[in-house]
């Protein structure tokens, strides 16, 4: 369960987020125009940005949550380009206490390739698998459709349905999970 409690964020002299209140306990896609604060909210949930006001709880924890409780996937993959996929997954499994089970998103096909040799879509696939290694009950993915083909999106949706909570952001409607407009979960007045 991801609980966003009255989260405000001021950046560059503007209130980007104005009192966001939201509880996520299933697959939820957050939609909104470019610049409406979706990525900012993901960063706050991930604990890499502090809210100006308010708090985020993930299964009752805050502000920084272990990878075993919250998996995070940003738009830019968090992988070591010089290492192979196998080496990356081994390293992150060690750090997060998880392990690779089966071949999610087809990663076994690319295990021995260096990450720098992969296409963007394959790097994103590997990055999602990296986040899922410790089997976190909660997940947040910024722009999940970017780079993923239809087959990978379908498999990703199946993987997400197994989570307690998955918050996705996309600049366009995905047809995945329950859609929530960012304007509808904060105080009226917009930006
Ligand atoms: N470090 C920063 N300093 C100043 N302003 C920032 C900073 N980061 C983001 N912003 C501003 O905050 C607003 C929200 O940005 P954010 O990236 O969260 O929006 P978004 O909804 O994810 O957009 P998109 O759909 O285009 O990805 C934008 O106006 C952006 O310019």
From TrEMBL:
Pfam family, one: ABC_tran
Keywords from the UniProt entry: ATP-binding, Nucleotide-binding
One term of GO molecular function: ATP hydrolysis activity
Gene3D superfamilies named among the record's database cross-references: P-loop containing nucleotide triphosphate hydrolases
Domain ABC transporter: 2-188
Keyword Nucleotide-binding: yes
Matches recorded under CDD domains: ABC_DR_subfamily_A
Name of this protein: ABC transporter related protein
Species: Pyrobaculum calidifontis (strain DSM 21063 / JCM 11548 / VA1)
């Amino acid at each position: 369960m991801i609980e966003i409690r009255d989260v405000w964020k001021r950046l560059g002299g503007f209130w980007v987020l104005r009192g966001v209140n939201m509880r996520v306990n299933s697959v939820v896609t957050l939609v909104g125009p470019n610049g409406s604060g979706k990525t900012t909210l993901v960063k706050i949930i991930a604990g890499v940005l502090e809210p100006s006001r308010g708090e985020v709880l993930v299964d009752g924890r805050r502000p920084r949550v272990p990878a075993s409780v919250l998996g995070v996937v940003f738009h830019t993959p968090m992988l070591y380009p010089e290492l192979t996929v196998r080496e990356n997954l081994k390293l992150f499994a060690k750090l997060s206490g998880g392990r690779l089970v089966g071949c999610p998103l087809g990663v076994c096909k690319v295990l021995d390739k260096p990450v720098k040799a992969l296409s963007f879509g394959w790097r994103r696939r590997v990055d999602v698998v990296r986040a899922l290694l410790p089997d976190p009950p909660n997940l947040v993915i910024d722009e999940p459709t970017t780079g993923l083909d239809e087959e990978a999106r379908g498999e990703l949706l199946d993987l997400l349905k197994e989570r307690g909570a998955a918050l996705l952001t996309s600049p366009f409607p995905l047809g995945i999970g329950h859609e929530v407009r960012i304007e509808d979960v904060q105080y009226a007045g917009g930006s």
